[in-house]
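Sequence only, no structure available. Ideas?
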Amino acid sequence: MSERFFNWERRPAITRKTPEGGIEGLFISTGSQVWSKASPVEILESGQELSRGKFLETFPDLPAWESAPPTSKPSAELLNRDALRAKLLTYPGATESSVERGLTAYDERAKQKFALMERAHSNALAEASLDRMRYPRPPGWRSVFFYPGSIRPRNMTLFWLALAAAITWFWIAP
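Reply:
I predicted one. Tokens follow.
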């Protein structure tokens, strides 16, 4: 498996490919010696990548991550998928087949995003590329105004905020 090593807020963290082709994230919380699940996107975005040697030097006496349980089966992502399915089914005109098509499209978007981020794209650049490729955004107001997985606003949001501020300034200034 392809593994990448990180200093994630002074905690050891790794991302690795799963046998199914996805990416999973693992970290050890402070004061623990057990690998826990984490969002690989968060680790990739906010962690400092280290070489394997530097990782083992920075974090000695780590339990083996090879024996850490795989997170690709019953994980938080599957629970989130069920919650997302339930949310999408409440939308007007939603059918079981349309919801399944939407979930498949979101899965494809996530796979493409991980592929872009592995090629050293930032989260914002990956999201902009996905928008140009016409992948659907996840549902909810947050993904309209912010890049998923971060609190960075989308560029058009910044444009409209700047325009509103300029209009307000010129209206109030005289």
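The chain has a mean pLDDT of 75.
Hope that gets you unstuck.
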